[in-house]
Write a structure and sequence with these properties.
With about 150 residues, the chain is mainly beta. Helix content is about 5%, strand content about 40%. The strands form four sheets. It has a five-stranded antiparallel beta sheet with strand order 5-6-12-7-10. A hairpin with a 2-residue loop joins strand 8 and strand 9.
Length: about 150
C-alpha cells in the first residue's frame, strides 16, 4: 500500500513515518495483531522488503504490550531509540533505555512494559533465524563516482 508518505523509485522505496512523537497514531487491528494495538506499524509491505520485517513501536508511560508472543521461525532484534522501560524475555526482566539492542531467538516468550514517565520508542527487525548473510563490509562495493547532491 503506497500513500502520500511513500516515495518510490526504480531501486528504492522511502516511507516517511514522521517524528517519533506521532508514532502513537499508528494502529494495528486483527488479523494483523492478536488484539488491537496502538502505536505499532509494520513496514515490510510499505517498504516492499520481502526479506525482513521492520516495525515502529511506542509504549506510553504506565502501559505494556497487551500480550506476550514468540515466533516459530523468526528472530527479532529490538533497538530502543527513545525513552526507557523494561523487556521481559524467558521470564527475565531487563531494564532498557535509548541505545539498548536486544536479539531474541524464536521460541523465547517476550513483551514490553513502560514503567517510566516518558514514551518508550523502539524499532523491531524480524528475519528468519536460519538465514545467513555476509554482514559488515563483506557485501559492500565502493562506487567510483562523486555524489551528485542537488543545490
Amino acid at each position: 500500500m503506497l500513500d502520500k508518505r511513500t516515495t518510490q523509485g526504480t531501486n528504492f522505496t522511502c516511507f516517511q513515518a514522521g517524528s517519533m512523537e506521532t508514532w502513537n497514531e499508528f494502529r494495528l487491528e486483527p488479523p494483523h495483531a492478536p488484539v488491537a494495538m496502538q502505536g505499532k506499524l509494520f513496514l515490510r509491505n510499505l517498504l516492499q522488503s520481502p526479506g525482513i520485517e521492520m516495525s515502529l513501536n511506542v509504549v506510553q508511560p504506565g502501559e505494556e504490550m497487551p500480550f506476550q508472543h514468540k515466533h516459530q521461525s523468526n528472530e527479532e532484534v529490538y533497538i530502543v531509540v527513545g525513552g526507557q522501560g523494561q523487556f521481559l524475555v524467558d521470564g527475565e526482566c531487563i531494564d532498557v533505555a535509548e541505545g539498548s539492542f536486544l536479539r531474541i531467538s524464536p521460541p523465547a516468550p517476550r513483551t514490553w512494559r513502560n514503567n517510566a514517565d516518558q514514551p518508550l520508542y523502539f524499532l523491531c527487525l524480524q528475519y528468519r533465524a536460519d538465514n545467513l548473510i555476509e554482514g559488515g563490509g563483506a557485501d559492500g562495493r565502493k562506487v567510483e563516482a562523486k555524489a551528485a547532491w542537488p543545490n
